Amino acid sequence: MLAVSAVFLNGCQSRCPLARAANQPPPGFTAIFNGHDLAGWWGTTTEDPRKYLALPAAEFKAKHDASLTDVQQHWSAQSGELVNDGHGLFLTTEKNYGDFELLVDYKTVPLADSGIYLRGCPQVQIWDSTEKAKFPLGADKGSGGLWNNSPGAAGKDPLVKADQPFGQWNHFRIIMVGPRVWVWLNGRQTVNGAVLENYYNRQLPVPPRGPIQLQTHGGEIRWRNLFVREIGSDEADQRLRVTDPKPFKSVFNGKDFTGWAGPLDCCRVTNGAIVWQPKKGGTIYTQQEFTNFVARLEFKLPPGGNNGLAIRYPGSGDTAYMGMCECQVLDDNYEQATGEKIDPRQAHGSAYGMVAALRGYQHPIGEWNYEEVTVIGPTIKVELNGTQILNADLSQVTEFMHGSAHPGKDRTSGHFGFAGHNDPVMFRNISIKPLD
User: What domains appear along the chain, each with residue ranges and CATH number?
Assistant: First the structure.
């Protein structure tokens, strides 16, 4: 799928979708507009998708069905084009998406203003880039930016102005992986991997899944060739990581435990990965010590899998208490898999027993996840599959799970490693960049 998509899109980003038969998707893509009716769509407006996606099934169905009268009034299918009169609810996919690639053509009129909501969050902006009244808002910079990002934030303004003249079709290619977004308008890149901020609560990341929405905003807009390709975990991890630039250095050679210490018989190396042995525990760790650093790695969990990252581990004792922390590695569905209830400070990505991480951003069990951990002074940040799930200053922690103190939390240096808990958890592609 990767190879097909790359050949297709890199070879003819702007001309191929317009040249093929209307609403016929390229290889690997699925049409989300069938060209002749509104099947697969309903209507919402600018509202937090977390709220309506959390509704009981009956309440959600009532909300969904009540929107269809408005949708039929303001949206129509005309000669293979999806047409909005500039008013009404935003057309919203019934299907929700995680990581995806979206292709879409649009054509609008002077003074129109629209956009594409990603996972229900605003938005890839569509402007009338000639409307001088909106130049102070950024219309003169053109379409294709993440306009609802904070002032000065990456992605808010497009990198280039790439709009076609009125009367001509424009073509978007949009990729979303985690909260990060890449946008090309008419073959020119306007956003390069910027984080889409959560407009509804900027203290939280965007949801892990949500709908694609087409915004209405006061002027007719026409859409066609709406195609989506869902991105799997391997491709998502590759896009987020790309390659490790200098001074990242691999700390695991993929063949043996050269450079590692601890009870190494807890693990074996298989197909380039450290594989924890069932019924064996203990902490293995790098012989090298680190002070401030960024660690990058990939992990795969079995159902109910439990492990941890040893951060500034002293080389002996329980890393959760004697090291700066154990950064938890745990199946997000641990409670369902095991029947055991956990404290929020035990969830994946948490500074174990001290600060809880956000949940819900893991790939499905059996797939690889990409994680990046940054440790500077007393702070630790965890980014899982592109989404920041923890940002904690451990020097400020005064309340501990079960009242158990963490005497090592203020350590300033130590080893990096893995704290096994008897489950066959796997790790690979482990590299560290010292920040000292």
Answer: 2-231 (2.60.120.560), 246-434 (2.60.120.560)
